[in-house]
Design goal:
By secondary structure, this protein is α/β, with parallel strands linked by helices. The protein is 37% helix and 24% strand. The mean pLDDT is 92.
Length: 270
């Protein structure tokens, strides 16, 4: 019998964490060995069944990151930037696979992740679904085919509890559009428009974020020319698409070696 890939989940009690755990427990490929939560969580010391239901499973929710990392082949992480950075440093020391779905990192935190990737296999994406990564490739291709007279606008819609804005997916789409044009995304992305500053500069990539209801994630990229528009979109109907991508990333990363990768690498879109 082939040994299962040992998985710990960071943010185990969250919406994504609980769904990942359920998928891992029903898998023939993976084995759940750790469930991590914040030291402030009311669920510390509880069996993971308190989150996913059913009979006790003997997996206790903990804040002991080091123990979970050492016992794992891969860590899947949908938590908070601070938590992710802490786990990332441990994964680097232990040479483990770290799948990061967390978003909202500062530039300094991005540098810390890049440094950790010299030692750990880090697979980091703002969105891990197959469809979104196909959209990223499509946006980059269209952008490379059109000059800067075509305006690019990105619409980013999520549920009311989404903390960061723009989302990681919206920023990835802006990066793809900028890459297609051969420019640095930080020099062209426009996320600060308000009533006193609505002028649009040629070549800028606008991002508008909407938050409300239970929307899992809707993203559209509009290429607006004179007299015509191209619109490409992706609509996430449930979180299982992200779970599949995260687990596929974990499986792909085992024995891969150090480096910073994305789901586009995992799915072969690069």
């Amino acid at each position: 019998m082939v040994n299962k890939i040992k998985i710990s989940v960071v943010g185990a009690a969250g919406k994504m964490g609980s769904q990942i755990i359920s998928q891992v427990l029903g898998s023939d490929i993976f084995e759940l060995v750790g469930a991590l939560e914040s030291s402030k969580s009311d669920l510390l010391g509880a069996d993971i069944s308190k989150v996913i239901g059913g009979d006790p499973l003997g997996i206790i929710i903990t804040d002991d990151s080091l123990d979970c990392v050492l016992r794992s082949d891969a860590i899947i992480d949908f938590s908070s930037p601070i938590s992710t950075i802490s786990v990332c440093e441990l994964a680097a020391q232990a040479r483990k696979v770290h799948v990061i779905g967390t978003t909202g990192f500062t530039p300094e935190q991005e540098e810390q992740i890049l440094a950790a990737a010299r030692h750990a296999t880090i697979i980091k994406s703002g969105n891990m679904s197959l469809g979104v990564n196909a959209l990223l490739g499509t946006v980059e291709k269209i952008s490379s085919s059109l000059d800067s007279s075509w305006d690019i606008e990105i619409s980013d819609t999520h549920h009311r509890d989404k903390v960061d804005s723009p989302s990681g997916t919206a920023l990835d789409l802006a990066e793809a559009a900028a890459s297609g044009r051969g420019v640095d995304v930080d020099s062209v992305k426009d996320i600060a428009r308000n009533g006193a500053n609505l002028e649009r500069k040629e070549g800028n990539i606008g991002i508008v974020s909407l938050r409300g209801g239970s929307v899992v994630g809707d993203h559209s990229v509009i290429f607006a020319g004179d007299g015509e528009r191209i619109v490409v979109s992706h609509f996430a109907e449930n979180r299982n698409i992200f779970v599949k991508g995260a687990l596929k990333s974990a499986e792909w990363g085992v024995n891969k070696g150090p480096g910073l990768f994305s789901t586009k690498d995992v799915l072969g879109f690069k």
